[in-house]
Amino acid sequence: MTRKQRRGTLIGVCLAVLMMAVGLVLFALRDSIVFFHTPSDIAEKPVAPGQRFRLGGLVAAGSVKRGEGAKVDFVVTDTLKEIPVTYEGMLPDLFREGQGVVAEGKLTPDGRFVADTVLAKHDETYMPPEVAKALEAKGVKLGKGAYHPAGPVSQ
Amino acid sequence: MIVELGHFALVLALLVAVFQMVVPAWGAYVRDRELMATAEPAALCQLGLLLVAFLSLINAHVTSDFSVANVVANSHSTKPLIYRIAGVWGNHEGSMVLWVLILALFGGAVAAFGRNLPPSLKANVLAVQASIAVAFCLFILLTSNPFLRVDPPPADGNGLNPILQDPALAFHPPFLYTGYVGFSIAYSFAIAALIEGRLDPAWARWVRPWTLLAWMCLTIGIAMGSWWAYYELGWGGWWFWDPVENASFMPWLAGTALLHSSLVMEKRDALKVWTILLAIVTFSLSLMGTFLVRSGVLTSVHAFAVDPRRGVFILAIMTMFTGGGLALYAWRARDLRQGGLFAPISREGALVLNNILLTTACATVLIGTLYPLLLEALTGAKISVGPPYFNMTFGPLMVPLLLALPFGPLLAWKRGDLLGAAQRLMLAGLLAVVVLAMALAGLRRGPILAPFGLALGVFVMVGAVSDLAYRARLGSVPLEEAWRRLKGQPRSAFGSALAHFGAGLLVVGVVATSAYREELILVMQPGEETKIAGYTLAFRGVAPATGPNYRETVGLFDVSRGGEAVTRLEPSKRIYDVPPQPTTEAGIHAAWRGDLYVVLGDAQTGGGFAVRIFFNPLVRCIWIGALLMFFAGAISLSDRRLRVGAPGRARRLLNAAPAE
């Protein structure tokens, strides 16, 4: 094999792997990304039933109802609009009324959000930044503590 | 007083680092031996000062000095001693002090053990190392100072997030940081080589042990984090493709590639320019990991810092070292001589393929991790890229890598014999086919590709053993002779075989757990029974209990199999005293065939409890695989010490050259 052929083989293999990777990435990015919306977003720009997305907001006070088995109903609100959510499974430790929550799932044709995942937070004073930001963008006033995991720290 | 001493030591360390960054590099430039030699005491002095700073911070935490803001925010007087110590790096400020301390440890190790390095190379390496220390010391002092006092001091602290109060997590950050920061040595050596414009095979011999050490620690650090997430979070999974996990996984992928390419450089004096680039990229990814985790752009347990100044500061550091390194590379790489030639089918060729696939896989993970951040910055749309993306991109790229892996060590340098290698892998292939057939016939559920994944893992495992068997000429010489030959192999041969075996085992564990996991979510009344994976679980009710700093509700589950009692599992829901936060403790029965994993949920109306039960088949293989890789690294590392003579020869050669 000449030097040229060797280099050609190397470049060929590199290109093949890269093209495979680019193809996979484009394919995967088209099919497997999940958007994040608040209830107001849904009211402004409805999402088709059956399309997966993440719903973020606060768990409305007094809305959590336990159904049969491990089924739970609650309402996610951004204080302007709300969406009823059904979830079957274990709720994260820090799931509480009035606290921030992110649920992943699909809307049914009658406007109910069926979640298959409810995301856990790691800290009780902590609100997921996307929820906090989305709520602030909607003009909801949040206390300083909602953003910051630890209270009176750092200077 | 001790706290002020620590603060003062940190400031002094910064000053020493500034000296160490400037003077030795200048000395190397003007070829002044005395100026170059200052790097060594400076590095050791910097290490000593940072050690004082770190120990004084530990002291403040251990003695619960609540006049220190950092202790107030992260500790509590009732916290057990080990978590008071671990709490030092369980928060942003303290973890950054640990970061620079480890950086200084590596710098000090180069100063102390690098006696056979050419003086100018050593001076430049330590200067680059010091420049990183300067950046991070400034970062700590300006934006995240752990030594600040509060006045008046409160009576008690806020406590440490209870899910972090865990033995695996106490040691996870030090290992992870040793991994991240260890790659700084490879980076410093790369930059020093670019500054000097000279690169010999001895360079790789100096860099390899450090890279290996960093890689080992990163491997075990990631494995510990994964293990912790598995048993502590109560989700039953061990890897979530969370951006924070990816942040540590990307340097691991690049570091694995670096480990293999530096092998080619050391043995064959080829791939030099590429290895330099990889060293820069690996450390840049480590810095990016620090940035992603510490800047608060990601939501997770790791995002301590949400202060935007910190994010901007780390971003600036990252840009400087990544951008500066790459710019220097673009400018100087041309001056480095390209190395030897080799045929595509050869050990070098196999290692190049390994590098192409690993770096490409790393790039796909990078895209998946950064895409949501970029999209949000550009369009404001909030998206998340979850496991489906990574499974679809990363998975397929691993298939050719694992298929080719067993061939690599069996090919000769320069020109390999693919047919010969294939013949030596007959047994591995045969066993893989047997496993495939058994899995296809026996396991009727799960994805169709899963049996192929299991077979691939077995192929890699048996392939690693075949490599050793071939080296010992097992089968073609008498047994005693083969044993003698095996004993005569260098330790690095055992190291690489064991690491590859561990990788195969890990693949088997990953595929089995992901594809054949069983899961039940149900409400159980006390006295009820349920069945999963051959086990029968009888729920006996719940009982209250108290721990040192928490109260809990414990669920009692008697587990039996085929009528015989196996164990009693006691998953619980805990409420910690300070901060008053609930956590879930899973009940796990670990066995070779798989883990039975029970999580106790909320009490339901009517006296029942929500219960989630998993059976995770062969999940143990994942951690044992990672552990084997760690030990494999240690075995290879112990081999290096036997070769002290080799770099010595290179030094005499370099000294003979007109250096001054």
Structural features:
A: alpha+beta, OB fold (Dihydrolipoamide Acetyltransferase, E2P), elongated, B: 660 residues, alpha+beta, four-stranded antiparallel β-sheet, globular
How would you explain this protein's 3D organization?
The complex is a heterodimer of chains A (155) and B (660). Chain A has 155 residues and is of the alpha+beta class. Chain A has two domains: 1-31; 35-146, OB fold (Dihydrolipoamide Acetyltransferase, E2P) (Beta Barrel). In chain A, 28% of the residues lie in helices and 27% in strands. Chain A has helices at 3-31, 39-44, 129-137, and strands spanning 33-37, 53-59, 65-66, 71-77, 82-88, 100-107, 113-118. In chain A, strands 2-4-5-7-6 form a five-stranded mixed β-barrel. Chain B has 660 residues and is of the alpha+beta class. Chain B folds into three domains: 1-163, no CATH class; 166-363, no CATH class; 518-620, no CATH class. In chain B, 64% of the residues lie in helices and 12% in strands. Chain B contains 22 helices and eleven strands. Chain B has helices spanning 2-30, 33-37, 39-62, 69-74, 81-86, 92-113, 119-143, 167-196, 201-232, 243-268, 272-294, 308-332, 347-379, 387-404, 407-410, 418-424, 426-442, 450-471, 479-487, 491-516, 620-640, 645-656; strands spanning 383-385, 518-524, 529-532, 535-546, 550-561, 564-569, 572-576, 582-585, 587-591, 594-603, 609-617. In chain B, the strands form two sheets. In chain B, strands 3, 4, 5, 6, 7 and 8 form a six-stranded antiparallel beta sheet that branches. A four-stranded antiparallel beta sheet of chain B has the order 2-11-10-9, with helices on one face. The longest helix of chain B is centred in the middle third of the chain and has 33 residues, at 347-379. Chain B is globular, with a radius of gyration of 27 Å. At the A-B interface, helix 1, strand 1 and helix 3 of A face helix 4, helix 13, strand 1, helix 14 and strand 2 of B.
